[in-house]
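Aim 2, interim progress: modelling of the adenosine-5'-diphosphate-bound target.
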Amino acid sequence: MSGMKRTTLFITGTDTGVGKTVLTALFLRYLRQSGVNAAALKPICSGSRDDARKIFAAMAKVQSPRSKAQSLLRLNEINPWYFRAPIAPLLAARRDKKSVELTQVLASLRATQKRFDVLLIEGAGGLLSPLGENFNSRDLITALRAMPVIVCPNRLGAVNQVLMTLEALPQPLRVKARVVLMSPPKPDAATGSNAKLLAEFCRARNIFVLPWLGRRFAADPVLRLPVVRRTLRALAAV
Ligand SMILES: Nc1ncnc2c1ncn2[C@@H]1O[C@H](COP(=O)(O)OP(=O)(O)O)[C@@H](O)[C@H]1O
Ligand SMILES: [Mg+2]
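Predicted structure of the complex, ligand included:
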């Protein structure tokens, strides 16, 4: 896998609090353990910098001798834009009398893209959540030609939420998009059938299911679970 082709995956979701950071941090660890020169970014944070810290921790943890030579990023590189108010980044920035422009963010993302073979970028909120002046995650995905990864809780309502998010993507990106259903601690009546139903509307091989990993799970044991490894390996086969 260390020869994985250069790619950028953009981790977005149907909502905030759906498991984007869980997926980003786990996937990053998995890739780096597998010898891939991978990095993850959370370019814009509002409210707290916890997501960027989780990514920093996942990146700093060198578990494989092969990944020792891989470069690390500082917290400020993982998250160049941080605003204190726990609201949409666009408004949080305005409260701090700041503005974030699309061109600045793209320049920063492209500079990091050049340094790594695989780059994961976590958006904030969902696909259309306002990130800065006149742009959202969809604009970043489109400009970077990134592979969209849509994270959604695996419960009743997921099919509608995923289809609405897919619908909002330009057609060429829609067919490339991956969907990751995050299973809740207690499955509901739809948890077991969502993936199959979704497969009637998009390619089955683009749909992935991750299990509930526990309330305070540790990454290392979780990354040894065959079901998690299988899913991340398939997600890496882009
Ligand atoms: N598969 C999962 N197993 C265990 N906990 C999960 C899982 N998916 C999400 N969570 C939990 O749900 C909460 C929100 O997840 P997070 O990744 O921070 O969401 P987002 O980045 O989309 O806002 C966190 O407490 C996280 O640990
Ligand atoms: Mg997050």
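The beta strands are 7-13, 38-41, 44-46, 81-83, 118-122, 130-132, 135-136, 147-153, 178-182, 207-210. The radius of gyration is 17 Å.
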